[in-house]
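Deliverable D5.2: sample structural annotation.
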Amino acid sequence: MTVKRFSDYIKSIEKFRDERDTEFWYRGHSSTSYKLEPFTHRNRTPEDKPKIGIAEQETYDEFVRRSPLFDGQRRDQWDLLFLMQHYRAPTRLLDWTASPLVALYFALMTPDKKDPAVVWCFDPAAWNGIVLSDIKEPPRIFTTDDSLVKQYHPAHKDKTSRNEPLAIQGIMNNPRINAQKGRFVIFSSEPKPLEVFATDYKVKENGKILGKIEVLPEHKERLLKDLERYGITYSTIFPDLEGLALEIRRRFGANHV
């Protein structure tokens, strides 16, 4: 589905929601060429699975060893993993948001004049119900306290034999995650994008579980300005001095930052 105006986008979101009374997630990409995969899986093949597990463990251990120099708080394993994701260290987490406006802003904030931007729409509870139907798990969003999810942590000793990505509620350990209404999908060591898993589990393309909305390059600037008129700006998504500086730069300097 392709949209030209802000009103078209809202109509597309409502069409995806279809009056279902559940939480939906969204993820914005500046180009349709980007896949729904975490940093640790990029440019990887199934043959790399053993290497991915080793690299994740080494990365996590290094962060645990060195982060206390910059962060004085006592944190558990999950808190540390989400902190790594926040500061862009490689993890098996893929960021989503519960706000379709935030997702659209992420899709438009980086200029790409060649490819359409895309916002993915996702029903996380329904997804979990489908990929875990073999163990009769009801549709729901997991927390890090769930025993099944604990097995997905890269530092967990008894690794899970399952490989499907799961939708989880993350730990709100910084203002940005809260402002962005951050949500997460956690992957195993299986380097396969969410779109491919969707095909494997016969999730209908552009259906009610996983769909996408595209914005053609010539309409990006107009939609971005519409978002800003409705109060979605850098400083609302990045509530700190960096976000404020980028917002001022866009307003008084270059059109894109």
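Annotation notes: The chain has a mean pLDDT of 91. The chain is about 40% helix and 15% strand.
The annotation will be released with the project's public dataset once the embargo ends.
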